[in-house]
Amino acid sequence: GAVVSQHPSRVICKSGTSVKIECRSLDFQATTMFWYRQFPKQSLMLMATSNEGSKATYEQGVEKDKFLINHASLTLSTLTVTSAHPEDSSFYICSAWGRGSYNEQFFGPGTRLTVL
Amino acid sequence: EDQVTQSPEALRLQEGESSSLNCSYTVSGLRGLFWYRQDPGKGPEFLFTLYSAGEEKEKERLKATLTKKESFLHITAPKPEDSATYLCAVIRGDKIIFGKGTRLHILP
How far is A93 from chain B (nearest CA, A)? Predict the structure, then answer.
């Protein structure tokens, strides 16, 4: 099946710094990717839809200036957490529809962000 | 409003004890319902997609079924390695909306 990768898998940063997380579709092109956030023992919360060549669409309540999304190519989307604070610590996961269909949505392995 | 509700929230079974997980949904015009498995600290792993009432799919000890209002994930004779969180999700537009999941723990 299609593969989605994320980098880094874990990151620890100081409060006030910015952190960039990359999401790549390895063997297919993804015009749309999705970013989720997950707190311990809770389900995935959709943060935004990343569209190649255009602005991301954010879900209600998600700060677009805090979570910057760039979909630079058909295989790469990045999420930058700006001026991170301890409350931004979470598990961030990206996903993409496989090969332009709605049969399966493939997820990356996730990135654990810890803000000190 | 589209909703996905999973029950139970958590389930502990003895190895070999079969059971079912429930996912009820309220979506206008269901275009697809997904089941995923998620292990701690990892991204969700795709299991099944169901599209229409009456459809069933199987994979090893798992079988997913779909009605007009809900889906069941049946697990037959589970093993400890089946312990995970099982997530149900439905398509809404070009996104998928998740339920809160069922944490399944199989005791040896």
Answer: 7
